[in-house]
Structure formats: C-alpha cells, structure tokens
C-alpha cells in the first residue's frame, strides 16, 4: 500500500515553508514542498534537511494547467492519490504598486482565486478518504471586508447564501474585475482592495466545497477549511508582521492534521489561534 502524502503549494518560503516544516514534524507520511522555480524549491528542501527534516520537492506553477496536471498524475501513480493539500500560493500587490487597479484586480483574482480553483479541480478527484484540505485565506478574507454600504450588504448576502455555487462565485469574482477595470467597484459595493476580494472568494469557496463533498462523497470524511494565518513576517507583509512563519503555520498545520471524523471545523473560517470564527460575525482581533 502506498503511504500518505501531503502537498503545500507555493512553499519554498514564508508561511508555506513554515507549514512544510510543521508537517514534516507531525504528518505520518511524505511531505512535498512545491515551487515554480526548481532551484529555489530544492534550496528550500536542503535548508530543511539541515534541520533533520526530509521533505521532497515537486515543481508546481499554479498558473500552468500542465504543471498542475503533472503533479496530479505523479501523486496518483506514486501514492494512489492525495491525503493533505494546503493551498498557500498567492500574490499581493504592495500599497505603492503603480499598475492600474483593473490590472491588479485581474491578476490577483486570477491567481489567488481561479488558479487555486484549477488546483482543486485537478487534485480533488484524487483526494483519498480522510483527506484534509486547507486554503490559506486571511483576516482580509473575512466577509465584513465587503463594505457595509447598501450595495455592499447585497454582495454580502450573495456570498453568505447557502445556495451560492462555484459557478455563481466565479461570476462574482469576474464582476469585481470588470468593475475594477471601469472604476465602478466602489459604487457597486466592493472594497478598494484586490487582495481582500480574492481572499473573500477563497473563504466562500471553502464553504461551497465542503458542502459539495458532503453531498457527493459522503462517508469519505474529507474536510476542507480556510485559515487566517495571522500577520506574519514575510515578503508578502513587507516583513512588517509580528508573527514568525512557524507561528503563522500553526493553525494551518493543525487543520491539515485534524483527526478522523471530526465534527468541526468543517468548511470553517479559522483564526491563527485556532478559534473557529463566524465568517459573518466579529473577529477575535484585528490581525
């Protein structure tokens, strides 16, 4: 029988690197560190080897369907499927970015939402019974980042609807990009942050995917959650974060290792201190 296997996307540095480190210590199986750039990925594996840890490397560029498909084929051939998937790969424009807001919106939503969805479409069919999936969201992915204006409250209702489907969520993401390009996003209820919208999308997707798996693969005990890792000292935060990457990895790795038949969290939005948060309610802290 093939052993268990875990994959962390975008994990040659930052929070993803911390999650690989944590899984190497706590997961009973093989852990794959992935990166777009092979040399950077292998350097990261070598860095962890100095700590006595033994992750393996597989190239993965979530912007390339061919790259995602190669990973899926490899996992199925060598392990019979996948036991843990952590979707960490993402981008964020800096506050001083000079690209037009519409361009930022298109690129951020494409990578953080739609390319993450491509990973799910390719790898979910090979999830084994008992698999755990973790999407790295953010405090910026809380529903209340959608402004409490009349139009924003209408958007919130669409995101929170139990009838929201993956197709309808994709339409919402594309509607934001279109509004960002023509400069009407604020008047239509959207925040002035492409990253916030992308992570609200990831948080909403988590709920949809858990519901779909419960309906279509009931009894297989596959659990999906999203997590706010905290304000972590990484390149993405311009090293202004207050948490180490290992602290930022704590809740994500906990979710990746949830025991069999856990009742909660399932399709949940989880804070960095492992608090299960009402996605449409108050948050435990600002960060």
Describe this structure in words.
This protein is an alpha/beta fold and 287 residues long. The protein has a domain at 5-94 and 114-139 and 201-277: Rossmann fold. It is 44% helix and 14% strand. α1 (14-26) packs across α8 (245-256) and α4 (101-123) packs antiparallel against α6. The protein is globular, with a radius of gyration of 18 Å. The relative contact order is 0.14.
Summarize the structure.
The chain is of the alpha/beta class and 287 residues long.
Structural key phrases:
287 residues; globular; alpha/beta; eight-stranded mixed beta sheet; Rossmann fold; single chain
User: What's the order of the H and E elements?
Assistant: EHEHEHEHEHHHEHEE
Q: What is Rg?
A: 18 Å
CATH architecture grouping of the domain at 5-94 and 114-139 and 201-277: 3-Layer(aba) Sandwich
Largest β sheet strand count, sense and barrel closure: 8 strands, mixed
| Highest-level CATH class of the domain at 5-94 and 114-139 and 201-277 | Alpha Beta
Give the overall form.
globular
Read across the widest sheet, the strand sequence of neighbours is 3-2-1-4-5-6-7-8
Question: Could you report the average pLDDT, rounded to the nearest whole number?
Answer: 97
| Low-confidence runs | none
Strand portion, in percent?
5-15%
Q: How many strands appear in the DSSP assignment?
A: 8
CATH superfamily of the domain at 5-94 and 114-139 and 201-277: NAD(P)-binding Rossmann-like Domain
In helices, the fraction of residues equals 40-55%
Structural class based on helices, strands and sheet pairing: alpha/beta
At CATH level 3, the topology of the domain at 5-94 and 114-139 and 201-277 is Rossmann fold
- How many DSSP H or I helices? 8
Span from first to last CA?
Answer: 43 Å
């Amino acid at each position: 029988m093939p052993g268990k296997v875990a994959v962390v996307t975008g994990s040659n540095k930052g929070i993803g690197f911390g999650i690989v480190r944590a899984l190497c210590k706590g997961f009973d199986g093989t852990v794959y560190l992935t990166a777009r750039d092979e040399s950077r990925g292998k350097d990261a594996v070598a860095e962890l080897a100095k700590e006595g840890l033994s992750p393996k490397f597989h190239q993965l560029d979530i912007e390339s369907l061919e790259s995602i498909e190669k990973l899926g084929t490899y996992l199925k051939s060598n392990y019979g499927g996948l036991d843990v998937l952590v979707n960490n790969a993402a981008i964020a424009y800096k506050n001083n970015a000079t690209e037009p807001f519409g361009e930022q919106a298109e690129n951020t939503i494409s990578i953080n939402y739609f390319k993450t969805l491509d990973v799910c479409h390719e790898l979910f069919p090979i999830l084994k019974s008992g698999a755990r999936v973790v999407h790295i969201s953010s405090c910026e992915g809380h529903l209340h980042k959608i402004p409490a204006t009349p139009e924003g409250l209408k958007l919130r209702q669409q995101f929170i609807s139990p009838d929201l489907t993956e197709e309808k969520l994709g339409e919402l993401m594309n509607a934001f990009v279109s509004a960002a390009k023509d400069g009407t996003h604020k008047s239509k209820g959207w925040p002035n942050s492409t990253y916030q919208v992308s992570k609200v999308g990831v948080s909403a997707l988590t709920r949809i995917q858990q519901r779909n798996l419960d309906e279509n693969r009931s009894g297989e005990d596959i659990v999906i959650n999203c997590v706010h890792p905290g304000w972590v000292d990484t390149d993405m935060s311009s090293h202004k974060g207050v948490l180490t990457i290992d602290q930022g990895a704590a809740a994500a790795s906990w979710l990746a290792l949830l025991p069999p038949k856990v009742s909660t969290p399932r399709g949940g939005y989880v804070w960095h201190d492992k608090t299960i948060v009402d996605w449409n309610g108050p948050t435990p802290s600002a960060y």
